[in-house]
Amino acid sequence: MSVLGALEVDEEGDLANWIIPGKMAPGMGGAMDLLNGTRKVILAMEHTAKGRPKILKKCRLPLTAKGQVDLIVTEMCVIEVRKGQGLVVTEMHPEFTKEDIIVATEGFLTFAEDCKPMRQ
Q1: 2, 48 in Cβ contact below 8 A?
Q2: Which side of the chain, N or C, has fewer Cβ within a 10 Å radius?
Q3: In whole angstroms, what is the distance from residue 19 CA to residue 107 CA?
Q4: What is the pTM of this model?
């Protein structure tokens, strides 16, 4: 299992976490190495950056890994990336509504029927 941050993640579980356009970058770091052969990938990240969604329909930055993300944990909710179903919210922070989460997310979300409050 690998737990790491992300600049972007998309509906298909693609991950971009190593470059910001227009900024000097020393290299892609070890994320690609961490994910090679990893069975479960969990992202621990902020839901937005400067008010803009980081959970997208499709990543815009160069990919670190394609289709490898299993779980996204943000300050707003927990999202499972399910093959054939996309992004499924399974837990929500009680301070946020479904509408808050939808507005903060570019990618298409569904909410699990048994969606529960996040443990604090």
Answers
A1: no
A2: C
A3: 21
A4: 0.91
